[in-house]
Each structure stands twice: as C-alpha cells, then as structure tokens.
Amino acid sequence: MLIRNGKIYTMSDKGIIDGGDIRVEDGKIVDIGKDLEMRDGEKVIELNSEFVYPGFIDSHCHMGLYEWGIGFEGADGNEMTDPITPQMRSIDAINPFDKCFEYARAGGVTTVVSGPGSANVCGGVFGAFKTYGECIDKMVVKNPIGMKIAFGENPKRVYNSKSKMPMTRMGTAALLRSFIVESINYLNKKRRAESENKVFDINLKYEAMIPVLNREIPLKAHCHRADDILTAIRIAKEFDLDLTLDHCTEGHLISKYIKESGYPAIVGPTMTMASKIELNNKTFNTPSVLINEGIKVAITTDHPVIEEQYLALCAGLAMKDTGLSEIDALRAITINPAEIVNIHDRVGSIEIGKDADIVIFNKSALVSDSKCLYTIIDGNIVYSV
C-alpha cells in the first residue's frame, strides 16, 4: 500500500510532513517521505493534504468487558467476590465481536489497553489489544501490561455493602500492602525451592504478581482524589514498584508531587458529570497542568464511561480554554500512551519498522465535525467511509 500526499503527523522527531507519503509492506511501515515512486500492483490511497495520524491508543479502558446493549450477561469487568483477585486476566473476558470494537475503529482508535474495573483493591491484569480481529489472542500487542489496583470510593462502596474489609481508605491500603508482602514472601520461597530443586506448589494469585515485583509491568492504580493519588505513590515507592496513575482526576492540585514521583498519568474520563464525590474537582485543565509540569500524560475515555470512538474528541476538549497545544493533545492519544504502557516499539508513531496502524481524517481529528476516512491496522483497511 502507498498513501500519497497527506499531512502526516508522525508523532516522532520528523514532526509534520506536508504532502508526505507512506509505504506499507507486510503490515509494517517501510518508507516515509515525499514523491515516493508507485510500484506495480501497489494499492494507492491518493490524498489531497488530508490529515494522517498514527492509530489512536487508549491506555485505560474496559473494551469488550462491558458489552454494547447488554446488562449483567455482558458485564465481565469486576469479580466482586474478593477484594484481592490478581489472577483475573482481561483476555479471558473480552469479546472481540462486541460492536464497540467496530465503533472504535470508526473513530480512529487502533489499540486499546483493556482490563478489570475498580471494584477490588487488586483486580487483575490489563492487556493491550488491536481493535480489529475475530480472536482476541491474535489481537494482542502485549499481555499483560499492568496489574490493576484501586483506591478511593469504589472498593469501599463494594465491600461496605458486604460488611467486609475494606470499608475505609486505611483498609484498602492495608490490604494492598499485606498482599504485596505475601507476594514477596511467595517469590522468595519459589526461588529458594528452585535453587534447591524442590517441588513447589504454584499459587496463581501470587504468580500474577511476579511480573510486578520484577518491574516487568507496573501497578495500574485507579485513583481520583489527591490523597488517593499520593497513597498510590507512597505504596509504590515503599516497595520499589513501577506505577501508572490512572484517572488522576485531582492531579492538577498536586502536580509538583506527581512530578517528583516520576510516574506518568492517564487522565480521564473528563467528558462526564461528577457522578460521585471524588470527581468534584474534575476539569479539562488537568492534562495541561500536568504536561506543563513535565509529566508524561495520556488521555483516556475509560470506555464504556465515554464511548471509545470519542477518544480524539476528549483530547480536543482538553485543548479548549486550557492552553494545551495541538501536538500535546495528539501525543496524549498516540505516542504517550504507547510509551506509558511500553508498546512504543510497535505503535504510537509513524516510523519505519512500526506496525502500519494509520488513520486518515478529512480535517483535524481533534474537532467535533471531523470525519475518519480510513482506519488501517497492520496494513489492512479495516474502516473506510
């Protein structure tokens, strides 16, 4: 495939290429430039300076775990029977035939990081998946990419209704600390048994935490309120673990402390009403404040809270009256989420050698009346008008 004469937002050090061309072979980007020569038999998408972007990425959602138009039967995001369920794997519950994948592609979203909800203190692992396919195993970009943990109102509300710990923020933090310590003890015993060539009984709860303890994947912390954000940071630092701050609703109030922590923020969903107390300080200013502080920021829909196809619109709204630049808004739905979840070797920018995940809009994708003309995943056109 050859894409010709587009306004290419590479989201790399090449910047924006006006009148640029992209060549795709075997699902990968193999050349970027101007006036690339057409080859015999090559499919050509001829443009007239339409906007070309790397496929958009949502680094925190529940795609396929809460299905379109279905109630309990399609709600598979929270195993609300135990506050500690790290052995849950999102890949086991995602339905790739859910209509939301089709709608996501129509909005230019090519990769979603999808996983459990926030009912539990530790909810299970997220994975990164392409938005096109019939078999979720074949749609994997990376799995797992993070271990979901949750602070604040949600675990309190769920387990208060069961008269079970945690009923307080103290209880949430205490349970999480205890579980991390138990996981460390398990890993030490496993290593000792292996070194002595002894039989060792596998426990899937603790096995799921080994990549976290080895800093292969981060804790993925649901945290809205400022004090919950700081508790997530405190615990991660205490055990020397990697962390992403998901939602980070009051991050603008404590931006200097987040900056000091070195952890990235995944901000949103913001295009909603304040449906609970911990959202009272929600504002579209948060990404701008954090970015100006030098923090790496991604923007999320938290699908199905906001439908996935409106990811680019959420980034556009974060520009409105906030001083956030167009490039920073685009980075928050392309290369930043890719880097935050460590899949930037494959997606997030238009560069030679990366997956040919490319979206083409008739005008800036950040404005409400723009239209996605083509969505290309792994070099295949999976949506067109």
Instruction: Give Rg in angstroms.
Output: 21 Å
CATH class: Alpha Beta
CATH topology description: TIM Barrel
Task: State the domain count.
Answer: 1
Number of strands: 16
Write the H/E string, N to C: EEEEEEHEEEHHHHEHEHEHEHHHEEE
Structural description of this entry:
It is a single chain. The protein is α/β, with parallel strands linked by helices and 385 residues long. Helices cover 25% and strands 24% of the residues. Strand 11, helix 7 and strand 12 form a beta-alpha-beta unit. The chain is globular. The two termini are 18 Å apart.
Features:
385 residues; alpha/beta; TIM Barrel; globular
Give the topology, please.
Layout: E1 2-9, E2 16-25, E3 28-33, E4 44-46, E5 51-54, E6 56-61, H1 99-106, E7 109-114, E8 122-130, E9 140-150, H2 153-160, H3 169-195, H4 204-207, H5 210-213, E10 219-223, H6 226-238, E11 243-247, H7 255-261, E12 265-267, H8 286-292, E13 297-299, H9 311-317, H10 326-331, H11 335-340, E14 358-361, E15 372-377, E16 380-384
Parallel strand pairs: 1-4, 1-5, 6-7, 9-10, 10-11, 11-12, 12-13
Antiparallel strand pairs: 1-2, 2-3, 5-14, 7-8, 8-9, 14-15, 15-16
